[in-house]
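User:
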Amino acid sequence: MAATMRRTLCCVLSVAAIFVGSGETAVAATPAVSIPKFELAPGPLEMSERASPRRFINAVGEKSGLWGFEDGLLE
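Assistant: Predicted structure:
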């Protein structure tokens, strides 16, 4: 039983070493690219009301949604 556990541990460590080694070279070879800032035009929908920080709000559309509290923490 100990031999089986040792063999399994060696296999797991070997696979982990392969993934770690291959991931480092791929990340090092790819330079970081960021998206430049752009202006965001106001859309046709607007939510306006007096803010109450503990109140939950949500807005769901066809392709996106907004969930959170009126204190500014939104998803």
